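Subject: Predicted fold for Tagaturonate reductase, 496 residues

User T.R. writes:
Posting the sequence so we have a shared reference for the thread.
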Amino acid sequence: MSLPQLSPQLLDQQPELLPDYGKLLALPEKIIQFGTGVLLRGLPDYFVNKANAEGIFNGRIVVVKSTSTGGTDTFSEQQNIFSHSIRGIENGQQIDESVINTSISRTLAAASDWLDILECAHNSQLNIVISNTTEVGIQLVDDNIFANPPSSFPGKLTAYLLERYRAFNGAPESGMVIIPTELIVGNGPKLKAIVLEQARRHDLDEAFVEWLEKHNHFCSSLVDRIVPGKPDAETIEALSEKQGFRDDLLIVSEVYRLWAIEGGQHVRDVLSFAQADKGVVIEPNIDLFRELKLRLLNGTHTLASGLAFLHGLDTVREAMENAETAQFIADVMLKELAPSIPYDVDPAQAQEFGNQVLDRFRNPFIRHQLIDITVQYTAKMKMRNIPTLLNHYQKSEEVPALFAKGFAAFLRFMKPVMHKDNAYYGERDGQPYSIRCDAAAYFDEKWKNAASPVDLAQQVLSDVSLWDTDLTLLPGFADAVKGYMTEPVVTGTSTL
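User M.O. replies:
I've generated the C-alpha cells; pasting them so everyone works from the same file.
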C-alpha cells in the first residue's frame, strides 16, 4: 500500500498530524524569500514556523525561485507544506523529531511570475526580505532592473525595492528589513552597496536613493545549521514509513541551529519570530559568530571536502569514520585554522567551538554529501580560507602543511576530464563527478596547458586575479602544495 502525499488534504483527513493547521495556512504574508534551497527551509523558515506555532510572529513567506533551472511543481503539488526531520545530539540527549512546516504561502518563479513578485511589494505587512543565492549571488553585474526579470539577485532586489518605494510614495514606514544569508563577510553592507550602485547606474531618483539609505535595514547575518541536500532513498523511505506519508520536499537537519543577525531594536521588533528560539541572535555586532563559523566549520569543510572525496569517501560522516581523514579534519581545524582566525578570538573559545564542530560532523543521522560541499569550490576557498592562510603567515613563517594538503586536493579535484552540455566533469576511480564551480572553465584551460601538476599549481597559486594576492610569495607554501600534487590519493595510504 502506497503512502499518501503530504498536502492540506492529508492534514484534513488526519488532523492529528498538525492540529489547527488551518489557522497557520490563513496567516498573512510578511516575508519574501529569494531562494528555495534546503538551508533556507531548514533554518529561517524553521524559526518562522516555530514562532507561528507559538502565536508569536503570525506571518508566512512568499518564496522566489531565482534560478532558471527546475520548476516549482513539487511545491505546488504539496501547496508548499513540507516536513523537516531534526536529528542529533543536544545537551547530551539524542533528538529525533519531525516537524510539519507550513510557513511558506506561495512559491513563485522569477522567470515566469515576475509581475506577481513585484505585486508583493504593495503589501504593507510584507516588510522582510531573506535571501540565499550562494556566495556568488551577491555580485555587481551589468543588469537591467526593468527587465522581466532582472538577471541577478541584486538587480531583482533593486527592482523590488523601487516598486515598494513607488507603491507607498516613499513613506518611511514602508522600508524593509533585508537579511542576506549568503556566506560573505559583511553580506548586508555589500548587498546594500550593490543596490545603491544599480540605482545610480539606472539614474533613479535621488529621493528613492535617500529612502533606500534611511529607511531600509540591510542586516549582515550568519546562518549555521547543517542541512544536507536531498536525503538518499534509504533515508527517505525510512522517514516516510515513520511519518506515515510521502513528502517530496522532505529535508533533514542536525539539531544545532544559529542565525546571528546584525541589528538594533527596530530589527528586533520587525523580526519578532526571534523570540521563539534561542538560535536566533540579534546583536549590534556579529563578527565573532561569523568568524568562528566561517573559518572553522566552513573553512574545514572546504579544505577537507575534495581531499576526502578523492580519498574515495562520499559523506562527511564517512570522512569522520575514516581514521586518516578524521585526523586530518581535526588537526587542520584545531592546529592550523583555529590559531589563525583573522579576528581577535579567545584561543580557548576557538578550540571549544572547533570541538563542537567535530561533534556535529560526527552526527550519525546526517548524510552530508562531500560533492555538495564542493559547489562553487573556488569562491569558497577564496572567501573562507585564504584570509586565514594570510593571517597564519602574519603570525608565523611555519608552513601550514595540512592547509597545503587540502589546497592541493582542491586543485586536483578541479581537473576536468570531460566537458558536455556546458558542464564539466572530473574523474574518481574511473567514474565521472560533476564540477559545479564557476571557475571550472578556467581550470579546464589551466590543466590542459600546464606542463605538469606542479606547473599547474605554480600558475594557479600565483594568479592574483583569482586570489587577490600571489600565494607563491608565502614562504614555503607553494613548495608544500607542489609536493602534495605528485602524491597519490589512495585509500589506506598515509598520503591521502
